[in-house]
Write a structure and sequence with these properties.
Layout: H1 3-9, H2 12-27, H3 31-37, E1 42-51, E2 57-68, E3 74-81, H4 86-102, E4 108-115, H5 123-136, E5 146-150, H6 156-170, H7 191-209, E6 218-222, H8 226-237, E7 241-247, E8 250-253, H9 260-270, E9 280-282, E10 294-297, E11 316-318, H10 327-335, E12 339-341, H11 343-346, H12 349-362, H13 369-394, H14 398-417
Parallel strand pairs: 3-4, 3-5, 6-7, 6-10, 10-11, 11-12
Antiparallel strand pairs: 1-2, 2-4, 7-8, 8-9
Bound molecules: nicotinamide-adenine-dinucleotide.
Nicotinamide-adenine-dinucleotide binds at residues 4, 150-153, 195, 222-228, 246-248, 284, 298-300, 320-322, 347, 350.
Length: 421
Amino acid sequence: MTTEQVAAHINPWEVAQRQFDLAADKLNLDPGLRRVLRQPRRELTVHFPVKMDDGSVQVFTGYRVQHNLGRGPAKGGIRYHQDVTLDEVKALAMWMTWKCAVVGIPYGGGKGGVIVDPKKLSSKEVEALTRRFTTEIEVLIGPERDIPAPDVNTNAQVMAWMMDTYSMHQGYTVPGVVTGKPISLGGSEGRNEATARGTVFCIIDAAREVSLDLASATVAIQGFGNAGSIAARLIAEEGATVVAVSDSTGGIHKPDGLDISRVVAWKKEHGTVQGFPGAKDITNAEILEVRCDVLIPAALENQITSRNAGRIQARIVAEAANGPSTPEADLELFRRGVFMIPDILCNAGGVTVSYFEWVQDLNRDHWSEQVVNEKLRGIMTRAFAETLAIAKRDQCDMRTAAYLLAVQRVADATAMRGLYP
Ligand code: NAD
């Protein structure tokens, strides 16, 4: 089986629930609380029509899931991908709950997705799909209730259409209904880079912990979108050498280092990183196993599994993607002494600056990029230090430690609020 076939056979929702169960066992969580936190609060499925450019009407299926609202409104991205499933969205929503708790921002977890390959649609069709999907999920979203953001194949333009659609229905402009907007519409400085920047802050802290000199370190990155391509640029600015990158079409490998700005330009021109002059084409399975010090999965779920975890050569795995590793892979990597920075910590920079954006929108304020980045650094380094302290105290891996921190925070909030009615 290929990596893609293996990934397709693993249900992310089962993975998310198993990760939660491990933490709940260790925390000796009250059985009632455990039952509550193990399920999403709300799952909305919508089937909605879109008029295509050729005049035909297509019906698309989308989801919005709210996992937990104990600590604040739901927060989480919208994914456009042909393989989206309700179980995937449920897993991503649960991970958002823990992520917001790890970094201590006042949100619950949510996520949304539409089953569509947007690369096959015109811009006009993507706009129509976005506006109608926004309308369909309007029963759940709102600046005090549930705030979407970009995820795979959605971007600032899609957020602008969502914000405009919601605002049209309200009759006034509501910038705080989504984050990741263009700066001109109340977006935050630094939001576009935030996920990658947070990942790089974590890698700097992890490198210190394992005595790795980043200036002489090598890095491989799977996924070359918002998270992956910007992480490549930022880690190179730290002096590291990026030896391999990939996108959905495959990867490239150059052991003496890739010039990231040239790879970005190449991808823009050719639609793929493959064929980049001077580099060898490799597959998305091979990129995970190349010789490197730091591996950054920044694409999709279930990439590092029991089948390939034993062959990962990196000393640090930094999960910019959500759910790239299975629980079996975690055990194997921990056994082999690989330092894993788990998704709910490693990619939390995105939701943290989304929170900054929302605070600025609600206050009609605008912060400088320097202020945003400094606040982000403060939150990420504190969350990393708190997680590492638990990992050392309990002699456990960083994912378990992050879950212990997060689940305890959510459980405390939920228990304090009590059971309604
Ligand atoms: P994106 O759409 O900007 O980029 C996704 C990248 O992954 C593209 O380069 C695509 O070609 C590549 N890709 C798709 N399928 C692949 C495959 N099978 N193998 C290798 N590469 C593949 O999306 P993004 O926002 O960068 O999201 C990437 C990951 O980061 C996702 O797991 C997402 O949930 C997570 N994440 C994103 C944010 C954010 O703010 N954008 C925040 C937190 C986590």
